[in-house]
Amino acid sequence: MRLDTSLPELYLITPSPTQTDDGVSVFLAQLDGALQAGVRLMQLRAPELDRAAYTRLFAQAQAHCRRYDATLLANTTAEHAQILDAAGVHLNSARLMACRARPLGARYLVSAACHDLSQLLHAGQIGVDFVTLSPVQATLTHPEARPLGWQAFAELVGQASVPVFALGGMRREDLARVKQAGGHGIAAINSLWNR
């Protein structure tokens, strides 16, 4: 597996804000809390927002991230990520599998969501920079999903050609276990968002 020492070990996937002015204010305050706690790699995930609302929220979140020299990826199409002037794009598994080549040039980060070996291998073939592999453990975000468990996680990581972030029920305390299994770091929503 290719190691990337420039990648942080913590990858925050944001929850969606409530679609009110107060909800956005609370969201940005919590984003600042995560930044103050040292998170430097983030993905803005808000699938229920339309393109215009996502664009507005991304601009606000990006301004906060820039104050902390943090990297913000857009969970959207590659084309929209470029319009947003994002640091990169996160491909959900459907977008990943639809790609026949890396969707953005080297100046952008490209991450992808993987849930099985075929997705993990495809991500490596198209040249993404890193992936999330999930769910490792039971998660509140996707309670219906069957966890991989640590052994399967380690086996899959052993076949990856790019850095792998463990996702699903992860906490900062799991970082040592993830590294022991060959992973690069942890990705999380709740545990990195709520302090």
Keywords:
alpha/beta, 195 residues, eight-stranded parallel beta barrel, 8 strands
Structure report:
38% of the residues lie in helices and 17% in strands. It is an alpha/beta fold and 195 residues long. It has a single domain, classed as TIM Barrel. An eight-stranded parallel barrel has the order 1-2-3-4-5-6-7-8. Helix 1 (21-36) packs parallel to helix 2. The radius of gyration is 16 Å and the shape is globular. The termini are far apart.
Tell me the series of helices and strands, N- to C-terminal: EHEHEHEHEHEHEHEH
Largest sheet composition: 8 strands, parallel, barrel
Domain unit count: 1
Mean of residue pLDDT values: 93
Spatial ordering of strands, largest sheet: 1-2-3-4-5-6-7-8
Number of strands: 8
CATH class: Alpha Beta
How would you sum up this structure in a few lines?
The protein has 195 residues and is an alpha/beta fold. It has helices at 21-36, 51-67, 78-84, 93-98, 117-126, 150-157, 175-180, 190-193, and strands at residues 10-13, 41-44, 71-74, 88-91, 109-114, 130-133, 164-167, 185-188. The chain has one domain: Alpha-Beta Barrel (TIM Barrel), CATH 3.20.20.
